[in-house]
């Protein structure tokens, strides 16, 4: 072999090697990064903020905003709402006269958000300065500066933080926030993301007599949660879950869907959120749209075939058996009627608090479903990375009452 041939061979080999290395780098750089849920924390208010159904009705009567028929209606809704006597109202609504100021609303929200985040930082040993992404969602309360800025200021987050504040998107925004954080974690390497979800009652109770708006007073109470997400490979060892899929569907182009949950003034000028009688049918359509999109990702082929062939059979409708795909179902607490309808349509047994009861096992698949105004249905699929143990007594808000749930129907 001549020197020229040898040189050409070496050059070709180097070029091939460089291309191969470049191809491998491109592959590893462009492939989706795994997103891990390291841990989460819920906020539990102090005992003095607890409000039983009887106490709530007592407050409603003292306010003198409601007519007697409205008070009777509130009582009936509370009976079927699924709320028990261990829910909480903000401090501002326990006081007389009640404080409906922006300052009071800030106090409520800061107590919830800081309580959840303090708990989360304590559980995960992550320092606030290590957080690279922050997503906060609260539909009805959007102060200036934003709630995300409130968190940045409180915890002195770094000046390069990617922060977002989602408002007006309803009860399904938690999944939307996770989706946003996931997409950001695909771009920003080796970082943590925090998602905070809450709502505010101080400014957003309804004080009129429109029945469709009174219902929301019986569904919302003080609460909030914060989760820590990571794209760091080393966090796989300590994380509870890995994110598998997110599917978001929107039915807002239909008038009935768009208007079934609507914030507006009533005929007397009182601001409130109305829940239309078409809500449950709309929710059913939204769920069907979502599961049609999600099904091919998670269902066995045999079940997919049954679903797509049912129109040719003498069957009105066919709901795929998602129990063949998932071990657990996490349905947002948008009212007992929503949960009951989900249980019925998906043929589920009564829902329980799976993780708090220590029933989550390694490789279990969880389907998280959320419905929200607009009208939206959003799904997230998670896989447990280990046998998930309940949080310690100091960090588990369910510790003192978990054995009483789920409440058996009489």
TrEMBL record:
> Where would I find the FAE domain in this sequence?
27-310
Give UniProt keywords alphabetically: Acyltransferase, Membrane, Transferase, Transmembrane, Transmembrane helix
Where are the membrane-spanning stretches?
Answer: 6-28
One term of GO molecular function: acyltransferase activity, transferring groups other than amino-acyl groups
Q: Give the highest taxon in the source lineage.
A: Eukaryota
In terms of CDD domains, this protein maps to: CHS_like (cd00831)
Q: Which InterPro entries match?
A: 3-ktacl-CoA_syn, FAE1_typ3_polyketide_synth, Thiolase-like
The record ties this protein, via Pfam families, to: FAE1_CUT1_RppA
Listed under GO biological process in this entry are: fatty acid biosynthetic process
GO cellular component, alphabetical, reads: membrane
**Does the keyword Nucleus feature in the UniProt annotation?**
no
Q: What is this protein called?
A: FAE domain-containing protein
Gene source species: Papaver nudicaule
